[in-house]
Design goal:
The protein has strands at 9-12, 18-26, 31-34, 44-49, 58-63, 69-76, 87-94, 97-99, 102-106, 117-120, 132-137, 146-154, 157-164, 179-184. The strands form four sheets. Strands 1-2-7-4 form a four-stranded antiparallel sheet, with no helix packed on it. A four-stranded antiparallel sheet has the order 8-9-14-11, with no helix packed on it. It has a three-stranded antiparallel sheet with strand order 3-6-5, with no helix packed on it. With 191 residues, the protein is an all-beta fold. It is built from no helices and 14 strands. Helices cover 0% and strands 45% of the residues.
Length: 191
């Protein structure tokens, strides 16, 4: 499990990359989150429910990610009632690009349940090292509950795919989603 902690607020790195961390709240209905100020273009966003007010498990789904913010909802498994109580959602938005030890990008609409998507890191993480990788869908083209899964990772790249859950049926075909990713080429990166 890879993870990243970022102090709330907006942070600009030496090379001009911007990382912003914030908090919103939402339910099963569409909600919106705004950045403190606009990015130059749509950033890559990672979001996760960080409270447990409702006992049902959820996936945090994003769409309409643009320079000003994004829309999201909490999505329960298909066999559940589809109604979810209000939860806290923490998010991190980052400019695409590369800074020492950090790279951020997106797959485009290629990550599916059947084929997946290869991503190449600009510079390898070093001989034999597997970098830390975060990934999250930037779109909600497929309506079934799904999550990004890692198929393989190495110093020069990774293969991601979108996996649907099977609580109600065995069908797992998923339309291509744009998956954003962040790779940390070091175990500890202090920004």
């Amino acid at each position: 499990v890879s993870w990243l902690a970022v102090e709330a607020g907006r942070h600009e790195l030496e090379n001009g990359m911007v990382i912003e961390a914030g908090r919103a709240s939402g339910t099963h209905a569409a909600s919106a989150a705004s950045f403190s100020e606009a990015f130059a273009k749509a950033p890559v966003v990672f979001a996760q429910a960080t409270s447990a007010q409702d006992e049902a498990a959820v996936a945090t789904r994003l769409w309409d990610v643009d320079a000003d913010g994004f829309r999201f909802r909490l999505q329960e498994e298909e066999a559940a009632d589809g109604v979810h109580g209000r939860e806290t959602v923490d998010w991190i938005a980052a400019t695409e690009g590369r800074n020492d030890g950090l790279e951020v990008g997106r797959t485009g609409a290629g990550a599916t349940g059947s084929g997946g998507s290869d991503i190449d890191f600009t510079d390898g993480a070093g001989a034999g090292a597997a970098p830390l990788l975060l990934a999250g869908m930037q779109t909600m083209k497929g309506g079934d509950p799904a999550a990004v899964r890692l198929q393989e990772i190495g110093p020069d790249g990774a293969r991601l795919f979108v996996e649907e859950e099977t609580s109600r049926d065995r069908e797992t075909r998923h339309i291509g989603e744009d998956v954003g990713w962040m790779v940390l080429l070091e175990d500890v990166l202090v920004l």
